[in-house]
Amino acid sequence: MRLTRMFAAALLMAAPALGHDATGHGPERRTPAVAGWWKGNTHTHTWWSDGDAPPESVAAWYRSRGYHFLVLSDHNRMQEGLLWYRVDTDQKRESLRRYRRDFGSGWVESREVDGITEVKLKPLDEFRTLFEERDRFIFIRGMEITDRLEQHPVHLNGVNLEKPIVPQGGSSVPEMLQRNVDAVVEQGRRSGRPMFAHVNHPNFFYAVTAEDLIALEHAPGDGFVEVYNGHSGVRNDGDAAHPSTERMWDIVLAKRIAERGAAVMYGVATDYSHFYTEGGLRKTNPGRCWGMVRASRLTPDTITAAMKRGDFYNSTGVTLRSLRMQDGVIELEVERERGVDYTIEFVGTRRDVPLDPFMPPAPPAGAPGRQSQAYDARIGEVLQRVLGTRARYEATGDEIYVRARVISSRAHPNPFAQGDREMAWTQPLAIGPAVTGR
């Protein structure tokens, strides 16, 4: 369905006001335009599952803030077919009021059933024409494959899917992860289009351990895990009995590359956004983190293919002016913002560090979830630290892998947790004869 130019223009003019009202912290600073880099989020929820706003409102929020691509990843469904959404709480009624205000009563279809308003949700193929524009904004089709083993939630996002994937199940968490990743890989093989699955929020209820990820079998370009998730309840930072997701990533990289010669597992940062009408530390608001993908064109296939090559970095507010990762060298420059200082750290694991795990002391009674084994503290150590906006690391050959992260002196304006600072993370560069996946 194509709207008139006048209606489309009015819609896009309304989008910034919608986003400002939704989170209460105002529009996010627009990412500086750097040739060949595209900003996007691959984990986003709407009324099609458990988000608190219709997909058009969600898309307007992201598009108006300089995002170039968006995956609407609702639980176990894509935005297709017929679905009537019950508006039966004050929050939902407020979201509906904004929906009608910003898109017009002629666009919003509703009915009354037993005194409750229901809204007919628009499928992606109907509303995408309101937003998509060459070299400015696209949707990439996807969904959150939402599986569960007993009390353990096992979730993966399929990116650039052709059609929905039914959760594959399994008798253990590793088997469940493997079967769902394999289902995405198989759909990609049959369709001939690039696609991948990323393992979501491993520390959510502490359902996924480092050992589960180490065991995952995948070809280069098919392994991804969330190392930062904007949901305050997914425990990115871990606790006394569980490593942080970034620490988990280092353990997985070291073990997979050094011991198995396996492909690099890439790390992603995603919003996991649900709340667009309420803001606050305990709400899963949009705009907390994103991926910056280097690709020749803004299309679903080129963005997905670039991510499968590992040609992207993650950010919670830091923008890179340049990034080079090849031949054992990582070189980067940060886009400086006035009044902000930067620390660039090169993180990795040396080959002489023991990789054998040891069981930590028994966790306190009632400790949640599954517990990873413990590993040497030098896995994922800082190999070099530079103060400033430019840095270079040249591998000596005794590293298993190296990756870079940038820490800003500026506090995150809408943090995952108190004390968060704006940061950026590159992908890892495997050193030596191991498979790099790059």
Task: Explain what this protein looks like in three dimensions.
The radius of gyration is 21 Å and the shape is globular. With 438 residues, it is α+β, with helices and mostly antiparallel strands. The strands form 4 sheets. Strands 1, 2, 6, 12, 13, 16, 17, 19, 20 and 21 form a 10-stranded mixed beta sheet that branches. Helix 1 crosses helix 2.
Main attributes?
438 residues, 8 helices, globular, 22% helix, five-stranded mixed beta sheet, alpha+beta
What is the number of helical segments per DSSP (H or I, 4+ residues)? 8
Secondary-structure class: alpha+beta
Average pLDDT rating: 90
Largest sheet: 10 strands, mixed
Distance between the termini: 40 Å
Radius of gyration: 21 Å
- SS elements, strand count: 21
Contiguous uncertain segments of 5+ residues: 1-33, 434-438
What's a quick, concise take on this entry?
This protein is α+β, with helices and mostly antiparallel strands and 438 residues long. Helix content is 22%, strand content 27%. It starts with a helix and ends in an 8-residue tail after the last strand.
Protein topology:
Blueprint: H1 5-23, E1 37-41, H2 55-63, E2 69-70, E3 84-87, H3 90-103, E4 109-113, E5 116-120, H4 124-127, E6 138-139, E7 142-149, E8 152-159, H5 173-191, E9 196-199, H6 210-215, E10 224-229, H7 245-260, E11 266-270, E12 290-294, H8 300-308, E13 312-315, E14 320-326, E15 329-334, E16 342-350, E17 381-387, E18 390-394, E19 399-411, E20 421-425, E21 429-430
Parallel strand pairs: 1-2, 2-6, 9-10, 10-11
Antiparallel strand pairs: 1-12, 3-5, 4-5, 7-8, 8-9, 12-13, 13-20, 14-15, 15-18, 16-17, 16-19, 19-20, 19-21
Helix pairs in contact: 1-2
